[in-house]
Design a protein that fits this description.
Helix content is about 45%, strand content about 30%. It is α+β, with helices and mostly antiparallel strands and about 160 residues long. It has one domain: Nuclear Transport Factor 2, Chain: A. InterPro entries: ECF_Sigma-70_Domain (IPR052704), NTF2-like_dom_sf (IPR032710).
């Protein structure tokens, strides 16, 4: 149809993905990243949809990895309104959980702990417009591995 080889098409797609990713991510300092994560954690803790929408970028994308075990969303959730509603609702599954800022993928993120066990870990990416990506890990096996590695690195959780 277009007269392009497969290799050429792959290269075009690869370049497009890199450019889209680069456009989306304006550098944000560590202090600003942490401030936005703390605001996100506070809003999530209280199920405050309006406060969540304020801290989320308009085109935020949330992914969940429940490994098919916890009813995690199988598809990405896109948009501040939808992500805010899902995040606020998700808190109802963990009413007695402690919400805390924790390191996730080398950056400030969110850790939910219930009865001394991590039940969710959220890696948070931030851009100039606010929180632009949430990567939730809910799979128990992966969370146990996280706890073991966190314990090994710090000697405690």
């Amino acid at each position: 149809m277009l007269g392009l080889s497969q290799a050429n098409t792959r290269q075009i797609v690869s370049r497009a993905r890199r450019r889209l990713s680069a456009e989306r991510r304006a550098p944000v300092g560590t202090a600003e990243h942490r401030r936005l994560v703390e605001a996100f954690v506070a809003a999530a803790r209280h199920g405050d949809v309006a406060a969540l929408e304020d801290v989320l970028s308009a085109d935020v994308v949330a992914y969940a990895d429940g490994n098919g075990m916890r009813g995690a969303a199988r598809l990405a959730i896109v948009g501040a309104e939808r992500v805010a509603r899902v995040t606020a609702f998700a808190g109802k599954f963990f009413p007695a959980a402690d919400y805390a800022v924790a390191e996730a993928n080398g950056r400030p993120g969110l850790r939910l702990v219930k009865d001394g066990v991590t039940v969710a870990l959220v890696s948070v990416t931030v851009g100039a417009d606010g929180v632009d990506g949430l990567y939730r890990v809910l799979a128990p096996g992966k969370l146990r591995a996280y706890e073991r590695s966190a314990h090994r690195l710090t000697g405690r959780l």
